[in-house]
Amino acid sequence: MAEGDPGVFTATALPGDPRLLPTVTSAFLGTRVFRDILHAAGVYSGAAGDTHRADVPSPLGLRMAAPGAHSPAESFTLNTWTGTFSHTICSPGYTATQQLYAHHSLVHLMASSITIRRLDGSTHPVTVQLRSSFVPQSQDLGLTPGPDFQGAHYIYGQTLVPEVEGGPRPTVHMLWTPAPQSLTLGGEERERCWEFLTAVAGSEEEAKRSYSAGLSLAAAGSLHRSHVRAWAALRRGCSVQLDGPLALRQALHGCLYYLLSAVPPRDSPGELFHGISPGGLSNGTRGEDYWGHVFWDQDTWMFPNILLLYPEAARAILQYRVRTLEGARRNAQEQGYQGAKFPWESAATGREVCPEEIYGAQEIHVTGDVLMAFEQYYYTTQDQKLFREDGGWELVEAVAQYWCSRMVWSEEEQLYHIRGVMPPDEYHSQVDNSAYTNAVARRSLNFAADLARDLLLPVPEEWEDRARKIKMPFDEERKYHPEYDGYSPGEPVKQADVVLLGFPLMHPMSAEVRRNDLEMYEPVTDPAGPAMTWSMFAVGWLELKELQRAQSQLEKCFSNITEPFKVWVENSDGSGAVNFLTGMGGFLQVILFGFTGFRITRSSLLFDPAFPDDITKLKVSSVSYLGNKLEVTITREEIRMEVTETSQDPPASPLEAVLESGQRFPLWEGQSVSFPTAPGWIQRSPS
C-alpha cells in the first residue's frame, strides 16, 4: 500500500480512550478491538426501557506482548480495503502480527490470527505472550458449558430478561478456540501462524456449521483470503472516490468502512436483519450508545446512502421495520391512536423502549421518517414485491391511518393540526405544528395514496384530503418556516430541524425561502449539537451553489472525527454515542447527494452537481437505479455515465439522461456517455 493511502489508518500507539478503538463488525457480530465483550444482532436483554444489547464474553480480546524489559516497536492498522485490524510487534530478529476481523460472508464467525516470523538466521525459540481478560460468563445471559467440539470450547444460554413480559428470550451458542498464555516459534521454524476462531449463533447447529467452515478454510490457509474477497467485493460495489484533500478522502473511506460493516452480505437472504443503532453492533451494552436501540438515525441518516449503493441491504433494513409492525400497532393503540406508531427507540419487538417517556410520546416524526425510507426505496427500485407480498403495504397503510388519527381539525384556521409534539430539535417539546413533523406526515399520506394507485388498491379519500389541508407554519413577512407555532426567531435549536424540509424532504419552496431557512437557523443551532446537523446545512448551501458556506459547514464535521482510526463521536466534546454511524451517514449524504445533486423523485433521479473548491472529481462506481448499475464520474466540466450492469429478474428498465436544456442521452449497457456538467435527471427511457 502506498504511503498516504486514504483507506489505511496506521498508528504507533492506541488512543487513550478505549471507546475510540476501531470496531470489527459483520451483519450479525460486532466487537471493538481488544475488548472483552461482543454483541450478536437482535440479542437484547432487559425489560422495556432497560433493554440493551446482551454482553457476550469475547475470546477475541487477545493482545500480544513481547516478553522481557525492552519495549519493541509496535504499530496498529485498520485497513478499510481488507476489513481487517492488525497489531504488529517488531523486535530484533522477529515480527509478530495479529489480525482481527469479523468474517464478511460467514457472518457468525470472527477470527484472529497471530503470525510469528523470524527475520534472522538464529535458531533460538521466539515466544510472544497473549493477554486476555476473557471469562466465559455474562451479566445478561445464563451461560452453561457444553461439550468441546473440534477442539473448541462451547457455551450456550438465554438472555435473562425479555423485552416484553412473556416475550422471547433469544439463545446464544458460542464456540471458540482456547488461547494459551503464550505462543512459541520453535528453534527450527522460520514462520508459523496460529488461528483463533469464535463462532456465535442462535442455534447450536449454526454455530457448529460456522466453526467447522472456518476451521476447514483455515486448514487450507484461505480463511482470511475468503473474508477479504467478500469484503473487497462489497467495497468495490459501493466504491466512492474523490479527488480532493487527504483528510476528506480518509473521512470518506472511514465512513464507508464503518457503515458498510453494519449491512448484510449479498448472499445471506435467509438471515434476518436486526436494524442499525447509532453506534452499531459493537456498542450498545447497558449505559452505552443508547443501549443499542434503533432510531430514525437508521432510516433518515444512514439509509439513503445504502439505498443508492446497495439496494438489497436497504431492503433488509425495511424488512426489520416490517417485522416490528405489530409492536408499532400496539404503541399507537396504547396512546389512543389508530394504525402504527413506530417507537422513538426500537429493539427486538417494535414496542417503545425509550427509557424516558416524553420522547416516545412526543417525538412522533420517526413514524414518517420510517415511511420516507420505504418511499425512497420504492421510487428507486420499483420493487412491488416488498409491498404486495412481503408486508410493505400493510405498514404503509398503518402509518397513513396513524397520521389521520393523530391530526385534529382547526375550525379557526380551516386546517389540520398535529399538536403536542417534540420536533427533531429536542430543546422544545409539547409544541403544535412542528414544520418538520407536519411535512413528513403530509409526505407519508401522499406516498400511501400514490402507492395504493400503483397497486390498484382503493385510496381512502381522507389521505389526500388531509395531506392537502395540513398546516405548514410559514412566516409571510420574513419568508421562512418557523419551527413550530409560536417559534420566535433567534431561539436556540439543538440540531438540524427546519433545514431538513429542503433535504431530504424536498418540501416545495422557492430558493429564497430555502436560503432564509438556512440563514435563520444556522446561527442559532447549538455548536455542541450532534454531528449530522452540519452536513444538512452543507447540502442546503450546495443546493444554492454557495460553495464557500457549504465547505465551512462540512468542515465542522471534522471536529467529530477522532484519530487515528476515524471513529466518529456524536458531539464534538466527545460525549454521546461513539462510532456514531448517524454522523457518518450525514457526511456520506453530503458526498452522495450534496456534491452530485442526486434527488430521488417519483419518476426520476435528479442531478445537479456542485463541489467545494478543493474537490476536482467524484466517481461513484455503482449508483443503483431501476435495476441498473451506473458508474457516474463528475468533474466541474463534465459528467460521464455508463450503465455497467442490468438486472435480469425483474428486467431492468432502459434509462436515459435528460438535461434541463432538453438534450437526451440514451444510457445503454457498456456505453459511456458524457456531457458538460449541468442539471438534469435520469429516467426510464420512454422508447
UniProtKB/TrEMBL annotation:
Top enzyme class of this protein? Answer: hydrolase
The record's listing under InterPro entries reads: 6-hairpin_glycosidase_sf, 6hp_glycosidase-like_sf, Glyco_hydro_65_C, Glyco_hydro_65_M
What's in the GO CC field?
cytosol
Reactions mediated catalytically: (5R)-5-O-[alpha-D-glucosyl-(1->2)-beta-D-galactosyl]-5-hydroxy-L-lysyl-[collagen] + H2O = (5R)-5-O-(beta-D-galactosyl)-5-hydroxy-L-lysyl-[collagen] + D-glucose
Organism, scientific name: Rhadina sibilatrix
GO biological process: any one?
A: carbohydrate metabolic process
Reading the lineage from the top rank, the first entry is Eukaryota
EC number of the protein: 3.2.1.107
Q: What name does this protein carry?
A: Protein-glucosylgalactosylhydroxylysine glucosidase
Q: Which UniProt keywords apply?
A: Glycosidase, Hydrolase
Pfam families (UniProt xref): Glyco_hydro_65C, Glyco_hydro_65m
SUPFAM superfamilies assigned: Six-hairpin glycosidases (SSF48208)
Domain Glycoside hydrolase family 65 central catalytic stretches: 282-488
Tell me the GO molecular function terms: protein-glucosylgalactosylhydroxylysine glucosidase activity
